[in-house]
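CHAIN AND CONFORMATION:

***
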Amino acid sequence: MTGMRTVFDDLDERGFVAQVTDIDGVREYLQGPVACYIGFDPTADSLHVGSLVPIMALAHMQRQGHRPIVLIGGGTGMVGDPSGKTEMRQMLSIEQIRSNAEALKRQLSHFLDFSEGKALLLNNADWLLGLGYIEFLRDIGKHFSVNRMLAAESYKIRLETGLNFIEFNYMLLQAYDFYYLGEHHNCLLQMGGNDQWGNIVAGIELIRRKTGKNGFGITFPLLTTASGAKMGKTAAGAVWLSPERTTPFDFYQYWVNTDDRDVQRFLKLYTFLPVEEIQAAEGLEGKDLNVCKTILAYEVTALTHGKENALAAYEAASRVFGRREIRKDLLASSGIPREVKEDGQAIPTTMLSRERLEAGIPAFELFCETGLCASRSAARRLVEQGGAYVNDERLGEFDVRIGLGHCKRDGILLKAGKKKIHRLRVQE
């Protein structure tokens, strides 16, 4: 029975699996439709690129007939998970956590179908906040060995800088979550980052002691890029899944700029393209590898922000950075258009009279007029700080005149920093 292929084998083939508690048991558990869960921390009103691996794992589960449970840590978020941290997390109020949890619900709905119970989104505050302390110690705490808990990697790291009693309780609470979901939702598989291994194993042990049932755990690798950087971290900060925090265009550009060494790995992890197509593209270099990056960026942006925003980002990038010819045989299952719209409507455009451009317009006036800057003084500061560009050339003076001499085939491209782009065209 364990010889039949399951979603576990697909996850393993795509690079999702770091550790598994019982590989044969997991394969057997996944033979029929089952429930699985992953916890998400509600310490912000948006998830970031670092959360995409667990999100995609749940999406793979659902696509193969299983029922994902997204567990928002509204209760544990009031305590703080010490795993992978060298200092205590900021304590959040109930109101902050509730607001963040609602935002995460909306965001995760882009990846999972919660209709008709196909997936569940639960908040552990619903059962943790009502627990009686004495009863919890008597019924749950008695099953935990302090010596074993202190041997857990997450606690050993924090002991060096100071582990308070609130954080020490976190393993018990997460283990109780696993036990609760097993009892109330028949969920006996927990997944999470590799730093959650100790907490997952503690939950499996609690389930065994309390019910005699077998629980299972799968952990994901803690990903870094080929250059050693943490996934989703850039010089400008985190790459968020929220369009208000990271625009779809900048999100798209993050993936287009993937290190050559990471392209195949990221295609397997962050898209649903068939593994056979991705493997067939291995070993590509130069222009063909850049096409793979474009397809990667389009696919991840479409999943996160919808196809319209992905298409707009793709077209805008084609206008700004040049068009990449997409081979029809390369990653053929991708939904990326094989042609770019020639009207270039994805980039905001202003039409200017030939007369005005013949006379030339001071740069700071144009940056204000097109909305790239809120005021002329803000435009001056932008130029002085080196953040203003005309046709990808940095402006050195705020009052340099922009005119017909700057016109290219697609007009004049103005850029304010990396995020804001505007085009000028001659009105004939």
